[in-house]
Structures are given as C-alpha cells and as structure tokens.
Amino acid sequence: MEKRTEYGTLAINEEVLGAIVQSAILEVDGVAGLGVFGLSEGLGELIRKDTGTRGIAFQETNRGFFVEIAVIVDYGVKIPELGRVIVQRVSDALAEAVSMRPVEVIVEVQGIQQRNPERHPEHD
Predict the structure, then answer these.
(1) Cα 100 from Cα 29, distance rounded (Å)
(2) Which of 13, 88, 101, 102 is the most buried (most CB within 10 A)?
C-alpha cells in the first residue's frame, strides 16, 4: 500500500497492515480466530509459520483500499452486531496506526466454534 503525503510517498507492507488488522480483530469478544481464503491459501498456511495475514486480504483500487477478513466466531454471538464491531475496530486501528482508513471492510464468517472458557472466563 502506498500513501502520498506532502513530503513524499509512504509505502506500507501488507504484512504490517495485516498485523494491525489481526490485532484489532482478535481483541473483539466473540471472535474465535481467523479463517482462510480458498483451498490454496489454507494449504499454504499449514506450511507457513507466520500467520500474521492469514484470513486477511487487501485490495487497492483507484477509490482507495478494501480489506477482506475471514473469521471464525464463537457460538451464540449475534453475527450482524459482531460484524459491525469488527468493521469499526479494523477501520479505526488502520486510521490510528497508518493514517489510512479503508474504503470498505468485508467480513466473511466462515464458521462457528464452541466458546473457549479459557479465553472468555466471564461467560461461564
């Protein structure tokens, strides 16, 4: 990703953006983890050790950039509400960290997982 400023052009690696997005997503109560996009990415993630951008994709257009996120959610959460929280957190985290707000954040719920009591002890 590149951002033009009055001082020049700032290039930001997608791995860095992915780490920012991942951190923002995993702090949201109700998110069990990140998913994967397609079979080829899933197989690649089994081999790769760094999963900082797993389930996160960026696309640049002439209008700006889009973020697509694949998540696994905890059983019992209200998915529309959770989606709104994820979109807001990701947008705010990117704006704060790199002064770039995405044009659109797309959240794809890929599965539901039984809630982990160790991760959310307040729900027992």
Answers:
(1) 24
(2) 102
